Amino acid sequence: MVDRQSGRTAGVVPLDFAAGVLFESAVEIFARVHRMLRPRTPVPQVDLEFKTFANADSRIRLEEGKLTVRISDVLKEAPAPVIEALAMILIGKLYRRPAEKQYVHRYRLYMNRKDVRGQIHEVRQARGRKVHKGPKGMFYDLEEVFEDLNRKYFGGMMVRPALGWSFVRSKSRLGHFDPSHGMIMISRIFDDPRVPKITLEYVMFHEMLHLHYPVDHTRARRCVHTKEFKAHEKQFPGFEEAKALLKKICAIG
Predict the structure, then answer these.
(1) In three state form, how does the secondary structure of 204-228 look?
(2) Which of 28, 66, 161, 232 is least buried, going by the fewest C-beta atoms within 10 A?
(3) All structural domains of the chain
(4) What is the pLDDT of residues 172-186, one digit of tens each?
């Protein structure tokens, strides 16, 4: 459909405008987005660098009139629209203004691409490191806990990954599975005789399910806990009891 006044086809971005956006530098993109989000505020000097982070992290801060942006080098070759989406997200956070869904969706779609996920995985393996205390704690041995659950609920067929206790007695991150390093880390808060063993077993069982059920990357937002994952998790004997105990466990020092 052609607009009679402009002579342009409706819904088609003018070539000169599109070319300008596509060939902006990352610094120019962040300056433009800042101008869009804060039209009455002078655009600060933008100091932007792509850094060799151990993950696909991005950071931003505003100090003394300078906007400092640090982006993982994983995104160095990302298309301009992706950098624009990231700018919308970061500058929005800076001013406590949530980015529009279209930009969040665009960014997640790119980060969820198979080739990008592969690159992030390689970066984590090469640059990241896991600091832990090893599997043997003061009261519990994680290898024994793992193998006992493996025999009971997985037919002994699950290959044991690296296991370790965290240095910190974390009450917010009770356990996690790191696929890049093939490791399950458990909070040291469970290495305590006052903690019911069923809670440790449940957390370990949960992390073992992450080995059993891969992350679903078929949509823009990756799904860590799929329907199959949740259904299997509820088969853990004492599931409700363990969940209830975990709500109280943070009261233990």
Answers:
(1) HHHHHHHHHCCCECCCCCCECCCHH
(2) 66
(3) 15-127 (3.30.2010), 142-249 (3.30.2010.10)
(4) 789 988 876 788 999
